[in-house]
Design goal:
The chain has about 600 residues and is an alpha/beta fold. It has three domains: about 240 residues, Aminohydrolase, N-terminal nucleophile (Ntn) domain (Glutamine Phosphoribosylpyrophosphate, subunit 1, domain 1, 4-Layer Sandwich), CATH 3.60.20; about 180 residues, 3-Layer(aba) Sandwich (Rossmann fold); about 150 residues, 3-Layer(aba) Sandwich (Rossmann fold), CATH 3.40.50. It is about 35% helix and about 25% strand. The strands form five sheets. Strands 3-2-4-1-10-9-11-15 form an eight-stranded antiparallel sheet, with helices on one face. A seven-stranded antiparallel sheet has the order 5-6-7-8-12-13-14, with helices on one face. It has a five-stranded parallel sheet with strand order 19-18-20-21-22, with helices on both faces. α19 links the parallel β26 and β27. It binds 6-O-phosphono-alpha-D-glucopyranose.
């Protein structure tokens, strides 16, 4: 949560920082602010989106060659101008931005209150800055030393960046648990929560590690640990193009990302799947094949949409590999003292690779000797780096807050892993293996065909936009898709929606059914087909409105349902990759019909780096 950007170098800092903040708005958009150093410190901040800040700064003096900026997802203190970052020190000379949570902030605040410090905001960030200021005063040390001492006492997660008008040529940054990338240009440096604000200036980057401090002056980057020892920066080349993070003519990133799926799935399969030769090439799996094959148990940890991908993977792994699988919310797993054995394999599924709960969950499991296998989209992210092995989803940067293309890529990667392990373990016969490879091979084209339903889904969105609640039902492989469809609708349109296993519906949700309730059935042809047809009848008998996602040509359901959306025929194991697409579109078009900001739904953030 929260995006941070900073610049130091010959360019005007403000435009660089502002543009960077717009790229990072997916991380939070409750308020934003910048601090600039030029003959003194200037701090500007505003409640609302980055565009509100920009508007408020028209005509203001924003000239500077060193600047920091922040876009906030509120944790401590309501969204307001006052609680917006950057925060300033008591002497008004220093400004700081922060992404993360300082857990012992109230203890530090009490110490400072006793010393007479006054607080302008409700944030933990202001506490940390004033704590640093106090250490500097008491120890008569420089800022760098004060930051180091302060961070040794801090409990929690942070990326901080500080500027000080007494050192107008220096940026100080530090990280623990939240992401920080430093871009290295010619005589200039760019700092950001991810690489998207950096790529148009340079492709040389350094990912800062936990407990590292960066001291940056024009043309100079010094990395140190908290023990004040120098560390040689590991410079990497970014594999990311600017076009990948722009809207390319679409109204919203979410729509662009939904429509990118034929390509992203193709990219995800490329070099891995050879359907003719009957081969799957995945180095991360191959190098750990014995541990994967012989796993006593697979535990999948994830949050949000990634958890839904994990749930579907449970069905697939158990079916194909005959290995018991548990799917855990990372936030629960990390705190509940779970039993983890050496022979267990933990699969962490994450788009951002930065979700705090998932990260801590795998760190804990790693300590207990389990193999950590990351299924991550963001290359070089924290979860990818903590994992012992992994497979990237290669969906490219996902900017829309509601996950779409990352989800389908996760399904593809998880299916590939299960197939490869099953093949090696000989728990799948050759003809089924070959059949599923060719089914996967055809998925990009079938997603392309599925997207042709967009105009029809748009019309349905108009029809159902005013519903107060929605129910999403599915069975077997389509149950996680019902959950995902409901989540998408909640996130984007603010309509209450529940996903349920279709049969379980009789144990509660059926009480909600009346002529006003739209019920979305994910009812493609599979082994449960007859059962779900009965469930549709049960809803119709109670006058519910049925919208069914069906396999093409399913006239039986077409006759019963109020509305249908067809997807191409596919094996039941891969069909969910198709059936989720109309549900993504439905959520999108209802959000648009209600004139909501679908790329930045209220209260949400794409990357949840606080627990
Ligand atoms: C947030 C996002 C979701 C995402 C979840 C997990 O809630 O809004 O789209 O599914 O975090 O994030 P991850 O990056 O770990 O997949």
């Amino acid at each position: 949560m929260c995006g941070i950007v900073a610049y130091i170098g010959p360019k005007e800092a403000y435009p660089v920082v502002l543009k960077g903040l717009k790229r990072l708005e997916y991380r939070g958009y409750d308020s934003s602010g910048v601090a600039l150093l030029n003959n003194g410190l200037k701090v500007y901040k505003k409640k609302g989106k980055v565009a509100d800040l920009e508007e408020s700064l028209v005509g203001k003096d924003v000239h500077a060659h060193i600047g920091i900026g922040h876009t906030r997802w509120a944790t401590h203190g309501e969204p307001s101008d006052r609680n917006a970052h950057p925060h300033t020190s008591s002497n008004g000379k220093m400004a700081m931005i922060h992404n993360g949570i300082i857990e012992n902030y109230s203890q530090l605040k009490n110490e400072l209150l006793k010393k007479g410090y006054v607080f302008e905001s409700d944030t933990d960030t202001e506490v940390l800055l004033k704590f640093i200021e106090d250490i500097q005063l008491n120890n008569e040390c420089g800022l760098e030393e004060a930051v180091r001492i302060a961070l040794k006492r801090v409990v929690g997660a942070y990326v901080i960046v500080l500027i000080d008008q007494d050192h107008p040529d220096t940026l100080i940054a530090a990280r623990k648990g939240s992401p920080l990338v430093i871009g290295i240009g010619k005589g200039e440096h760019f700092l950001a929560s991810d690489a998207t604000p950096i790529i148009e200036y340079t492709k040389e980057v350094v990912y800062v590690n936990d407990y590292e401090l960066a001291i940056i002056r024009p043309g100079e980057l010094v990395l140190k640990n908290l023990g004040n020892e120098k560390i040689t920066p590991f410079v990497q080349k970014l594999d990311l193009e600017l076009a990948a993070i722009e809207k390319s003519g679409y109204d919203h990133f979410m729509l662009k990302e939904i429509f990118e799926q034929p390509q992203t799935i193709f990219d995800c399969l490329r070099g891995r799947l050879d359907a003719n030769a009957g081969a799957i090439t995945m180095a991360g799996v191959q190098n750990n094949i014995d541990q994967l094959k012989n796993a006593s148990r697979i535990i999948i940890v994830a949050c949000g949409t990634s958890w839904h991908a994990g749930l579907l993977a449970e069905y697939i792994f158990e079916e194909l590999c005959r290995i018991p699988v548990e799917v855990e919310y990372a936030s629960e797993f990390r705190y509940r003292n779970p039993v983890v054995h050496k022979g267990d394999v933990i699969i962490a599924v994450s788009q951002s690779g930065e979700t705090a709960d998932t990260l801590v969950a795998i760190e804990k499991a790693k300590e207990q000797g389990a193999l950590i296998f990351g299924v991550v989209n963001a290359v070089g992210s924290s979860i990818a780096r903590v994992s012992n092995a992994g497979a990237y989803t290669h969906a490219g940067p996902e900017i829309g807050v509601a996950s779409t293309k990352a989800f389908t890529a996760q399904l593809v990667v998880l299916t590939l892993i299960a197939l490869k392990v099953a093949h090696e373990k000989k728990t799948i016969d050759t003809s089924r293996f070959m059949h599923l490879l060719s089914e996967l091979h055809e998925i990009p084209e079938k997603v392309e065909l599925t997207l042709r339903s967009a105009p029809k889904v748009k019309a349905l969105a108009e029809k159902y936009r005013d519903a107060r609640d929605f129910l999403y039902l599915g069975r077997g492989y389509n149950f996680p898709i019902a959950l995902e469809g409901a989540l998408k609708l909640k996130e984007i349109s603010y309509i209450h929606a529940e996903g349920y296993p279709a049969a379980e519906m009789k144990h509660g949700p059926i009480a909600l059914v009346d002529e006003h309730l739209p019920v979305v059935f994910v009812a493609t042809r599979d082994s449960y087909h007859e059962k779900i047809v009965s469930n549709i009848q049960e809803i119709k008998a109670r006058k519910g409105k049925v919208i069914a996602v069906i396999s093409e040509g399913d006239e039986n359901i077409s006759r019963m349902a109020d509305d249908t959306i067809e997807v191409p025929e596919a094996d039941e194991l891969v069909a969910p990759i198709l059936s989720v697409v109309p549900l993504q579109l439905l959520a999108y078009y209802i959000g648009v019909a209600k004139d909501l900001d679908v790329d930045k739904p209220r209260n949400l953030a794409k990357s949840v780096t606080v627990e």
